[in-house]
Amino acid sequence: MEEVLANSADRPSRVVVVRGPVATGKSELLNGVAEQAEARGLTVLRATGLRAERRTPMAVFGQLLLHADRIDRPEGPGEQADRSPREQWEQREHSAAARVEQLLDDARFTAMLRDPDYEREEHVRAHVMRSLTAALHATAQGRPLAILVDDVQYADIPSLQCLQHAMRELRAKPLVIVLGLRTGPRAERPMFSAELLRHPRLTQLRLSTLGERATAEMLREHLDEATARRLAPDVHRVSGGNPLLIRALTHDILAHRPPTDPSLPALHALTVGDAYRQSVLSCLHRGEDSVLAVARGLAILDDAASDTTLAGLLELDHETVTLSRRALESAGLAEAGTFRHPLARTAVLDDLSREDRIDLHRRAADLLRRGGAEPPVVARHIVAAGEVTDDEALDVLWETATRARRDEDVSLAIACLQLADQACPRGARRSEILAELTRCVWRVRPSTVGPHLRALRAAFDEGWLTEQAVPALLAGLLWQGRFDEAAEIARKCQGAYEGTSAVSAYLAAGAVRTTYPALRERVGADNWPTPHGNVDGVTGRGSDPRSRAGAALNTVLTRGVDPHAADLAEAVLQGTPLNDANLEALTCSLNVLIYSDRLTRAAHWCDALLREATKLGGPGWQAPLSAVRAKIALRQGNAGDAVRYAVNALAWMTPLGWGVGIGSVLATLVSAHTAMGQYDQAMTYLDHHVPDGLPETRYGLELIHARGQLYAATGRVRPALDDFLTCGELMVRWGIDQPALVPWRSAAAEMHLRTGGEAEADRLVKEQLAKCGPGQSRTRALTLRVLAEVAGLRRHHHALHEAIEELEECEDRLELVRVLGALSRSHHALGELGQARMMARRAWRIARDAQAEALCEQLLPYSDGEVSAVDRPPASGENCPSEELTDAERRVASLASFGHSNREIARKLFITVSTVEQHLTRVYRKLNVSRRKDLPHDLLADTAC
Known about the structure:
This is AAA family ATPase. Keywords: ATP-binding, Coiled coil, Nucleotide-binding. This protein is mainly alpha-helical. The protein has 47 helices and 7 strands.
């Protein structure tokens, strides 16, 4: 371009055509040409074609002449001396403007002329064009002339004819014509383009989008070198190399830059914001109508946008759609048939009026349905249109909701079900929709399930709710603690439905029977279905997971811990995927493992489920699973972890969404803070608002027991005893009197000991010991500890050693601290002060790591009020000696520390005596001890110093 301008005074006319997609720099190039031409002394005339003036005769040529008419010219000879220079110039100016206006009017007239005498018409038109060309050339005043026309594709035909005439007439003159031509789906003014090709000195330039290196160069104008180089790939990917979009993204980056130290280079991140959105719309509205229409079609159809579908939706021919999509890609707006960035699609959709958007979605739904598209593809448009036109559309919504739940797209499922609920008439089908909608909403927004429960209740009262949908209503009412309503519905169902299989099966399930045990009293024994909740009859893998898990839970809480029930629960966890229908079965199975003291396995499965719930999303999943994980951590003696998990659980759902289940979370928090000595914090959770029906649930039992623990820790013996005895009374009445759930007898026994009721304490603790079956290591350990306290520590010294062995199975650190503390007091009573101090110090260390400050305070007197150097935490970078032990060495050393012989250890661990001796030799060396009684007792329970 510089070469063309440099030789313009010595060479005949040149024509330069600059072609390119929208916003690729054509106007910017013409602006640069104008500046260079003026700097070289050329007379510059400029015009721009406007879409709105395509049919206005002489609109573009008029811009050139009227612009020329305003150029200052020097005074010429023959000016009248009696007039001032300004007056003389104004007179000339007025005269020239009048002549130009007259010529333009003539041109406009001839453009509209339709004379029957064709030769006469052509003669007049030729005369006018010669006059206009002469006027155009006269504006140069002997200097080279540069004519620049941008967006020439929008120029009116008379202006193009005059421009063609000027090219021919002035071909030998020093003239440069630069035309900006936007490429698009259809060639604009094809005859003019063909005429250009006849010019002997035609130069054509094609502009395209920029590459990544050029994008980086543009970024360097506003960003530092490192940031420009780092962001260039992403900016190029989003902008497609379109200069306008690159500038817009640069603006968004700078607008959202974080505050930094001015002396340091700014750290920027790619931010796609409002400037990019506006620039996308600018590109589209400056382009062809067909390109804008196709862009809107792409935004509506998204992934379903084929050329055929777009043509049918927009009522365009196939070729136009293909060319328009190609234009979008060449402009950097789209790639591979879709927008380069989601915000571009959002901007196009927002640019549509509500009526146009709904109409396009409605037409898209009909078009795709007729074309055999998959239900989810069609359903998205039905939902966006917000109306269901026929039963077939209703079928599409239901099928899509079913698939969406299976594919974990709960938001789509809810949207489909809500629209289906509005359109479906009362009856069996709407009952199914309502029940399914309630379950979906429960998962993502539990606190908003109320309106859906009211809709289910209204349908039940009106008599059109199907029997299969009643369990969803009952589950919601029970969770909210509305037991009177639930009992009323359960009684009515006995005569309202034939067979009442679904309702009976729900009420007879083990999970319902053990979680809401008071419901049976409200319904009445005559109306209560026969339970099928024991593990004996529900063991097959083909059985429903909910039935199997409920049977296992019912067995554990009504008949005692059963290894078969725990195995069944773990089988359910292993073979059942996490979804809305299986959540209750999975949480029941986790509770079975907890009550069976299989805490390590429970933690393993719960952590796996929490990871999956976090990946798939949904507070209705993460909240209850976090609550179960908090309970596991508490029973493992990890009070700090228990608080963390429980607080997370409360954060996932509002109290309204928690319903009666909040009792379990609050119980964990109260017990954990009590163990940590944070009594004021524990008391705040007791003041938390809870549903009225909470005391009639299993969760209520847990909270009453936790409150009793807090009262006991703060010296309120009588209220604590009342709470423990209340738990016992309810558990006996409800038929779930198992210490695995709430060990109320041992807790009450400890309170009786404080008030001098040794006999009652002895009776209670022996009853509890008799209920502890095989495998209940944690429950049996705490019962043995209290038994030793009741009978006198000196008489039951061996019971404490047995309790420690039991705790090695479940790793309850807090209970281990209590047992070691009792063993320390036992050694102290026997006069073995060294052993007493050693036990107390080791217990203190475990309590410290578990953040159980209250237990630490209780242990200090038996450690002579001080903690030895070995009990202090290791310095930074220092390893704890016990960490060097292998698992096998740790097990052998733990048994040896409690006085087991090598032969006994070999028998317990199924290894040879020689292997035991080898392990002990290495243990002594690693721990720097020389005899068994110097070995720590907590090697298995406290694996980190």
